[in-house]
């Protein structure tokens, strides 16, 4: 039940976070910490989180997917970049340069 409550809270938080482009630094830190806690959950081996992250910057848009069921180095994958599916070379570069580490 606790996992469901966390998932529900996170889903609601992401909707609010995504729907409001202007968030306070405190809100942003809270969401980032919550996502970090989900990504590196080791307490409950039955919980396998998956979500997509859509990043929009002035010169680039990117969709990435997180899958906790995969080994650490393979948990993040690049889905699209600037609206296009990445080729094999870009995927290799992404894996090499985007190693994620737990937030501290």
TrEMBL record:
Basic and acidic residues biased stretches:
85-96
Q: Which residue ranges does the record annotate as region Disordered? A: 78-104
The protein in question is named Uncharacterized protein
């Amino acid at each position: 039940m606790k996992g469901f409550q966390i998932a529900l809270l996170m889903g609601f938080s992401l909707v609010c976070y995504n729907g409001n482009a202007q968030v306070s630094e405190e809100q942003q830190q809270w969401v980032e910490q919550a996502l970090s806690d989900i990504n590196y959950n080791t307490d409950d081996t039955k919980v396998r989180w998956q979500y997509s992250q859509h990043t929009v910057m002035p010169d680039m848009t990117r969709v990435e997917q997180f899958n906790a069921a995969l080994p650490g180095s393979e948990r993040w994958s690049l889905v699209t970049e600037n609206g296009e599916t990445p080729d094999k070379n870009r995927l290799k570069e992404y894996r090499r340069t985007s190693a994620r580490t737990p937030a501290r």
